[in-house]
């Protein structure tokens, strides 16, 4: 009877559809995430830096200058016999009252006994009192005294060779030499002649 | 290419070093002026000298000890001379050259030693002798460096290295000192106080080797050695009071000097050694008398009321006498001719005592209390006066009571007695350069009245 009723036919169930199916749908399978192991040090290659060759200008080597030892001019005098004295200037010393330079006429003596020349320089300078000179004497005046030193080292025959223009300064320089009793015996020779230049320097 | 660059930079470096040295050398005299020195020794820088340790040739430990004595004595002799700047041992190269072939002069002339002169050599013991080869080289003169070469031989004893060092130092000082002899071989005679007695003693100039000369067991004062170092005159308390007595150094005993009565004090030798001036009170008033060296022909030089004592001859000329006179009250310094003429008073006040004439005759050193009296400020100090100008400078300052100055034979040093608290027992002998620098004591207390030998 019931089947006789004009009712819509019964629809087959779609069990695939989640909304129509009565059966619960299966949960999706979730897999645990795996961490990647770190790469080994040699696996990742470091890219090479790009090298660029610098541009260098071509250098030319300078050749060292050639110093040709100048040959001394030949002596105008004959080598034999008496030759004239050659003056070699010794070192100039700074004093509190100026400068002084000493030279001897005997070249070999000056080279061989430079220490004696220094003693002569020092002793004379120590006995030079610029207070004896006229205070109006201008700065930088210089006077040259020539004297002999005998075998015992005693100075003698002091005279003004090149005057300074100030007689009192000349006198003070002359007295500086005369005030010295002795420089000590000469290391060699009978006597030497010394040329001593005093340069006045006012304070 | 690299080596080429290096070479250039080295050369540049040398150039800078050279410039630096030039600047440095140029500034030295400026620095040297910064401190005070008396006029006689100023004006030029001193010679810079290095005293190298000597090379020991014999491997004997005793020799090493002697060599050490030698090295220190040579060093101190050169330092005491007062004319050198000595290179400190710590600035010297570590080498010990024993012969001219072993020395590298540029090593010594370069900084930090910067020596102008080098003294070096070898020390050896051969058999029973000490043999020393000493050299003095000019470090700046590379072509002819040798200034001095000496060999010394002396029998081995504890004193031998000192004597050799003294002789070598004197030789160096003589060569470089501008004609003035060294004093390392000189002696100082002095009064040694022990208990209640005073005897005459002697010592080397640096205070070593102190030994007695007389054994009188009395009070012996004011020793004066004769110019030839053969006789010692002094004043001694005898049976008749203070008498002049003379001890012969050659014979090692007393020699006769006639007793004249009265109090006889402060003998002084004339520079030729033929006369003795002294103070005698045989007439009742202390006056200056001059006798021959054997005591005969005594004649009176002064005749004034008041005491006249402490005569000294001008050692350069021998025809002047400086002495102390109390003719105007407090004792003052006077000079006169050796015949008693031309009496000139040099000091203007205070209390003056014990004059000593410098060997070149230009100066007199004396002890002076310028503010004499109870409660007066100041004290007794050593003064040096230039005879020609009567200008004086004070040499000692605030070190207590100073007395009895005596010049060294080179005129660069003064020895004197000092007591810091004025007590006689604390008296001791000091030495200094004549401008008052490098002052140091050379004896312990109980030493008094020094007299420097004549060389």
Which helices and strands, and how do they pair?
The complex is a heterodimer of chains A (203) and B (455).
Chain A lengths: L87 E2 L3 E3 L2 E7 L2 H6 L1 H13 L15 E8 L5 E8 L4 H12 L13 E9 L3
Chain B lengths: L1 H31 L14 E5 L3 E2 L4 H20 L3 E3 L18 H5 L7 E10 L2 E10 L7 E10 L4 H17 L10 E8 L2 E8 L6 E2 L7 E6 L5 E8 L2 E8 L4 E3 L8 E6 L5 E6 L6 E6 L6 E2 L7 E6 L6 E6 L6 E6 L6 E2 L5 E7 L5 E7 L10 E7 L5 E3 L6 E7 L5 E7 L8 E6 L6 E2 L5 E6 L3
Parallel strand pairs in B: 1-3, 1-4, 2-4
Antiparallel strand pairs in B: 4-5, 5-6, 7-8, 7-30, 8-9, 10-11, 11-12, 12-13, 14-15, 15-16, 16-17, 18-19, 19-20, 20-21, 22-23, 23-24, 24-25, 26-27, 27-28, 28-29
Helix pairs in contact in B: 2-4
What does this structure look like?
Chain A is α+β, with helices and mostly antiparallel strands. Chain A is built from three helices and six strands, in the order E-E-E-H-H-E-E-H-E. The longest helix of chain A is centred in the middle third of the chain and has 13 residues, at 114-126. Mean pLDDT of chain A is 80; it is low at 82-89. By secondary structure, chain B is an alpha+beta fold. In chain B, a hairpin with a 6-residue loop joins strand 8 (197-204) and strand 9. The N and C termini of chain B lie far apart (68 Å). Residues 1-42 of chain B have low confidence and may be disordered. Chain A binds chain B through residues 61, 93-97, 111-115, 118-119, 121-123, 125-129, 153, 180-185, 187, and chain B through 4, 26, 29-30, 33, 39-45, 47, 116-117, 138, 140-141, 143-144, 147, 174-180, 360. Chain B: It is found in: Periplasm. Chain B: Keywords: Periplasm, Signal.
Reading the helices and strands of chain A in chain order gives EEEHHEEHE
How many strand segments of chain A? 6
Approximate helicity band of chain B? 10-25%
Biggest chain-to-chain interface with counts: A-B, 29 and 29 residues
Number of helices of chain A: 3
Radius of gyration of chain A: 56 Å
- Morphology of chain A: rod-shaped
The outline of chain B comes out as elongated
Oligomer: heterodimer
Structural class of chain A: alpha+beta
Low-pLDDT runs of 5+ residues of chain A are 82-89
- How does the major sheet of chain B shape up? 6 strands, mixed
The major sheet of chain A is characterized as:
6 strands, antiparallel
Structural class of chain B: alpha+beta
């Amino acid at each position: 009877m019931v089947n006789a009723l004009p009712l819509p036919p019964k629809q087959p169930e779609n069990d695939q559809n989640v909304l129509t199916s009565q059966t619960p749908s299966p949960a999706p399978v979730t897999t645990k995430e795996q961490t990647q192991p770190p790469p080994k040090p040699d696996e990742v290659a470091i890219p090479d830096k790009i090298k660029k060759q610098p541009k260098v200008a071509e250098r030319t080597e300078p050749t060292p200058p050639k110093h040709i030892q100048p040959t001394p001019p030949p002596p105008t005098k004959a080598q034999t016999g008496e030759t004239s004295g050659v003056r070699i200037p010794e070192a100039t010393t700074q004093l509190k009252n100026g400068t002084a330079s000493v030279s001897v006429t005997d070249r070999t003596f000056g080279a061989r006994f430079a220490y004696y020349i220094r003693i002569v320089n020092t002793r004379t300078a120590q006995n030079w009192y610029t207070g004896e000179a006229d205070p109006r004497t201008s700065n930088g005046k210089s006077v040259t005294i020539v004297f002999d030193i005998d075998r015992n080292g005693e100075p003698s025959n002091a005279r003004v060779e090149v005057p300074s223009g100030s007689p009192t300064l000349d006198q003070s320089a002359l007295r500086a030499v005369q005030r010295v009793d002795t420089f000590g015996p000469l290391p060699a020779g009978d006597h030497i002649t010394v040329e001593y230049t005093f340069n006045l320097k006012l304070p | 290419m690299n080596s080429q660059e290096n070479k250039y930079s080295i050369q540049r470096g040398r150039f800078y070093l050279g410039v630096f040295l030039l600047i440095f050398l140029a500034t030295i005299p400026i620095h040297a002026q910064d401190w005070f020195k008396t006029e006689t020794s100023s004006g030029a820088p001193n010679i810079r000298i290095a005293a190298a340790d000597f090379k020991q040739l014999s491997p004997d430990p005793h020799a090493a000890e002697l060599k050490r004595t030698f090295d220190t004595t040579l060093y101190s002799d050169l330092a005491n001379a007062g004319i050198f700047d000595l290179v400190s041992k710590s600035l010297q190269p570590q080498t010990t050259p024993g012969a001219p072939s072993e020395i590298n002069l540029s090593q010594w002339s370069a900084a930090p030693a910067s020596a102008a002169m080098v003294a070096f050599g070898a020390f050896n013991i051969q058999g029973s002798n000490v043999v020393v080869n000493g050299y003095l080289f000019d470090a700046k003169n590379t072509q002819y460096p040798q200034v001095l070469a000496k060999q010394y031989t002396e029998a081995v004893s504890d004193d031998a290295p000192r004597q050799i060092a003294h002789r070598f130092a004197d030789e160096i000082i003589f060569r470089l000192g501008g004609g003035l002899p060294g004093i390392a071989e000189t002696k100082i005679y002095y009064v040694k106080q022990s208990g209640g007695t005073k005897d005459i003693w002697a010592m080397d100039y640096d205070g070593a080797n102190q030994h007695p000369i007389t054994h009188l067991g009395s009070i012996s004062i004011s020793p004066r050695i004769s110019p030839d170092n053969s006789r010692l005159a002094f004043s001694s308390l005898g049976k008749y009071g203070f008498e002049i007595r003379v001890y012969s150094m050659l014979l090692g005993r007393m020699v006769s000097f006639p007793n004249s009565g009265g109090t006889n004090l402060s003998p002084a030798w004339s520079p030729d050694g033929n006369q003795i001036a002294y103070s005698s009170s045989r007439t009742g008033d202390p006056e200056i008398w001059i006798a021959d060296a054997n005591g005969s022909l005594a004649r009176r030089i002064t005749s004034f009321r008041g005491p006249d004592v402490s005569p000294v001859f001008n050692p350069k000329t021998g025809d002047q006498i400086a002495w102390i006179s109390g003719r105007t009250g407090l004792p003052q310094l006077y000079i006169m001719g050796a015949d008693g003429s031309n009496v000139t008073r040099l000091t203007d006040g205070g209390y003056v005592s014990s004059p000593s004439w410098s060997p070149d005759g230009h100066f007199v050193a004396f002890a002076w209390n310028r503010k004499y009296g109870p409660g007066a400020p100041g004290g007794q100090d050593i003064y040096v006066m230039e005879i020609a100008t009567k200008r004086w400078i004070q040499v000692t300052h605030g070190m207590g009571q100073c007395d009895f100055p005596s010049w060294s034979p080179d005129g660069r040093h003064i020895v004197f007695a000092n007591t810091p608290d004025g007590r006689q027992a604390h008296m001791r002998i000091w030495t200094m350069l004549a401008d008052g620098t490098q002052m140091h004591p050379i004896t312990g207390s109980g030493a008094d009245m020094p007299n420097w030998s004549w060389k």
